[in-house]
Amino acid sequence: MAGTDKSNLVENGGASDTLSLAVILVEPQMGENIGMASRAMLNCGLTDLRLVRPRDGWPNSKANNSASGADVVVDGARVFDTTTEAIADLSVVYAATARPRDMIKRVMTPRHGVPQLRKKADVGQACGVLFGGERAGLENADVALADVVLQAPLNPGFRSLNLGHAVMMVCYEWYQTGSEAPAEFLPEGRTRQATKGELVNFFERLESALDDSGFLHVLEKRPVMVRNIRNIFQRAQLTEQELRTLHGIVSALRP
Fold it and tell me: How far is CA 46 from CA 53, 81, 168, in A?
């Protein structure tokens, strides 16, 4: 269970119950795939799992095994006889499918469609996404119940997805709409990024050492060489710890 820290567990997509997304698996076949879908859901803070006629019955120990600790999702799953019953309390339903359908239905990618779904949840509408079984996906009758079709822009010659992969694709987009994580950040355990003042202090010390060694002896070229050297280190986005290491290198190389 690498990457698991239950002290930081987030449920309902990082928001209140009103912003939770229901994941409805219609006629899933294998308990293992239900477990992997559950794992994907909890990765994204979601717990509302609904099963319509699971082939191998429910509960299913194989689902718990493959969920890798996402037992809160598996154990809380609700089973329904029909898709209509499974979505009866929802106001907005999307259907995830890779196959084109012979019906007039709005089709969106997860990247663009899920944020719109989240906006509907923001104003209090209960939302869910339908996923079909492993053998043939959703039936047309199920898709007809949906407001929008979600279709990922994948390789047109091979769009087949594992059930867990499909659930992760949609749940990830849902989670990102409510995430305040920066687009780029230092990995855990690394020190903070060096300040510009710390960088300039290092630059001046390095340049002094290079002057003493004779590396910058051509005076007319010195400004350009100094600028190039500084740009090398600027691009590296050095941390405070890395800068201390570089100071140590300069100290070791000076006579």
Answer: 21, 23, 11
CB 117 within 8 A of CB 127: yes
> Would you kindly state where each structural domain of the chain is located, as residue ranges?
6-177, 196-253
C-alpha atoms less than 13 angstroms from C-alpha of 181 in its C-beta half-sphere: 10
Please state the CATH superfamily assignment of the domain spanning residues 6-177 in this structure: SPOUT methyltransferase, trefoil knot domain (3.40.1280.10)
Fold of 196-253: Helicase, Ruva Protein; domain 3 (1.10.8)
Buried/exposed 46-74: b ≥16 CB within 10 Å, e otherwise: bbbbbbbbbeeebebeebbebbbebeebb
Tell me: the pLDDT tens digits for 18-60? Answer: 368 999 999 999 999 999 999 999 999 999 999 999 999 999 9
121, 127 Cβ separation under 8 angstroms:
yes
Structure-token pair, residue 37: 């879908």
